[in-house]
Amino acid sequence: MDHGICISWYNLPDKSRDAYLEWVHGNYIPKQLERPGITWAAHYASESNVKLSGEKGRLSNVKSNAVPTGDRYILLLGGADAHAFARPTQSEYHAQLPAADRKMLAMRLGERVNVMAEEARVHGPAATQPADKIALSPCIQIGSFNNGADQEDDEVMAWYAQWRLPCMEKLPGCVRVRKYASVSGWAKHAILYEFTSVEARNDNFLEHEKPYPEQEAWSDKVVRKLVHAPGSPNLARRIWPACRRSARPLIRSSRSGWSCHSCRAAART
User: Which of 154, 170, 210, 245 could form a disulfide with 262 if both were Cys (CB 3.0 to 4.6 A apart)?
Assistant: First the structure.
């Protein structure tokens, strides 16, 4: 099983981005997957100009300069449990890497890392994989946050258990949702939604509470009290592993964002 997760949010300099991505997909991630207890890996590029559910401005992000602000790339590692990332810790593991690898890691800008343990998991209508197949979907939305000063932990826990997670079990385009609690890192909570595509998320998730005004009001009350990490929540497309239509990694186009070689070829025909 995969009840632990290590999440790294960071930015990259444009000049060395391509070299870094070739290294992280071809060298770093395969080495991570050889470590005992690490069960899967996925790498995502965050979307820009993301539409959020609810009234504009209800969601707040931390203002402290002490919290790193990287968020354009998200690397997720799944573990049997959270302690898969404690034997050794990520910082200890990185310290013993060759100098060339440490040089590539140093390209990460504003990196923020959380190690978390799974609190709950539900599957949506689009969950066509067997339960033991745990590869992440092509699209994720991930929120990382702390409770507000006047917000009790029980309120957030109840909202997820009684309303948000049950909703996702019925939402078209939703594959799976996992709620995490932090073991290490700034954010105390994380919520990881998986969708079949960015388009499916935009079509179905943004207005899913409209038929239920009382529950929508509850969501508004809870969300307004949360303090999110910089850039959170992130909507992101998977860039590793490659999509099913292609065995090659995804590539970046200045016009259309991230896409795979097969999808770009199909678009030209």
Answer: 245
pLDDT, tens only, 55-105: 888 999 999 999 999 999 999 999 999 999 999 999 999 999 999 999 999
Residues in the chain: 269
What pLDDT digit, counting tens, does each position of 141-154 carry?
Answer: 999 999 987 778 89
* Residues 4-268, CATH architecture: 2-Layer Sandwich (3.30)
**Residues 221, 227, 230, CA angle at the centre, nearest 5°?**
135
Distance CA 83, CA 74 (A): 20
CA 228 to chain centre: 14
Checking DSSP bridges between strand 251-253 and strand 227-228, what pairing results, if any?
Answer: unpaired
88 preceded by a cis bond (ω within 30 of 0): yes
Nearest to 128 by CA among 244, 25, 3: 244
pTM: 0.90
Q: Are 72 and 12 in contact (CB under 8 A)?
A: yes
The strand pair at 109-123 and 174-184 is best described as antiparallel
Question: CA–CA separation, 172 vs 268, rounded Å?
Answer: 29
| Per-residue burial over 109-127, b = 16 or more CB atoms within 10 Å of its CB, e = otherwise | ebbbbbbbebbeebbbebb
